[in-house]
Specification:
InterPro entries: F420H2_bilvrd_red/Heme_oxyg, Pyridox_Oxase_N, Split_barrel_FMN-bd. This protein is of the alpha+beta class. It contains three helices and eleven strands; from the N terminus they run βαββββαββαββββ.
Length: about 170
């Protein structure tokens, strides 16, 4: 499948003098390889909510799951706008990514089986999910699955050159 190749735009306000925009393929590889993401949503009263979770990058989107009664699911039912972040916690090196988009619930069992297989391939057999009735099933519990296609991704590079690259998808 051909991947969308958005063009990166460097923001000189937050970049070293000699920095250049990062290529999307580098950011995409990091999204595929990253093991932990942080999901930011907004509670109905406007307060932020942030939680770590696992996610897989497939078909140019991030997929994650959560319990149907968890705060994340309640927040997304009220507003699908969310942010997923991943990267490194080192000041002098690394690339952090911020993925902005809207979470859409995935309920098609065939699509869910593909996503479930991807979770198990990436994270191992402890992350095996059966699929039934539009949900992941494991250990007697259900999890709802969301797809977040990026509207904008920001990349924050650190090292010999600091740079902020923005990729727009719409």
């Amino acid at each position: 499948m051909a991947h969308r190749q958005p063009v990166g735009e460097l923001d000189p306000r937050y970049s070293s003098g000699g920095a250049a925009p990062l290529g999307w393929e580098r950011a995409r590889r990091l999204l595929v390889a990253a093991e932990v993401f942080w999901l930011s949503t907004v509670r109905p009263d406007g307060r932020p909510h942030v939680a770590p979770l696992l996610a897989v990058w497939l078909d140019e989107a991030l997929y994650f799951c959560t319990g149907p009664t968890e705060r994340k699911a309640a927040n997304l039912a009220d507003s699908p706008h969310c942010v997923l972040t991943t990267g490194r916690n080192l000041l002098g090196e690394g690339l952090d990514l911020v993925v902005e988009g809207e979470a859409a619930r995935l309920t098609d069992d065939a699509a869910l089986r593909f996503v479930a297989a991807s979770f198990e391939t990436k994270y191992g057999p402890d992350w095996h999910f059966d699929v039934r009735d539009g949900c992941f099933r494991s250990g007697g519990g259900a999890a709802v699955v969301y797809r977040v296609a990026p509207s904008t991704v920001f990349g924050f590079a650190r090292g010999s050159e600091y740079g902020q690259t923005r990729w727009r998808f719409r």
